[in-house]
Design brief:
single chain; about 140 residues; two-stranded antiparallel ribbon; 4 helices
Length: about 140
């Protein structure tokens, strides 16, 4: 036996098979995520512990309590950068790492660039090159 659906002729057995498969797929897609109970959804609404104090037990001599200097008052900026050795700028062809030949030491901290050994001891030429953004910043009035 055949029936017509949208101008197409289809056997009744196939129409029933498609309907059953559609119901099974629909149940898996739409109903599989409905196992979340109301209680599970509200567990995130519990308030924080009333006795909790942020920072309690943290020593007071950490980095964030030290006075922050700006400009020439930063000790690192007072250092003689001409004593450091580093990668020549602009970078040689094929080289991508700006600090390949630089030393990284804790004494140079104050520098913006660091790794596991400390901060980069950058040369005066590197400072100027980075400040000029590799030649892309030519006006001193920009930013």
């Amino acid at each position: 036996m055949e029936i017509k659906i949208a101008g197409q002729s289809i056997r009744v057995e196939l129409a029933l098979l498609f309907l059953v498969v559609g119901v099974i797929l629909g149940c898996h897609v739409l109903c599989s995520c409905s196992r979340v109970s109301v209680k599970e959804g509200l567990t995130m609404l519990n308030p924080a512990d009333k006795d909790y104090i942020l920072g309690k037990g943290v020593p007071n001599d950490t980095w964030d309590t030290k006075p922050q200097g700006k400009g020439p008052s930063v000790d690192y900026r007072k250092q003689d950068h001409s004593t450091y050795t580093g990668t020549p700028v602009p970078l040689p062809s094929g080289q991508l790492f700006m600090f390949a030949d630089n030393e990284f030491k804790p004494e140079c901290c104050g520098s913006t660039f660091s790794n596991a050994n400390g901060c980069a001891c950058i040369t005066k030429d590197q400072i100027e090159y980075i400040n000029q953004r590799g030649g892309n910043r030519t006006l001193s009035s920009e930013f």
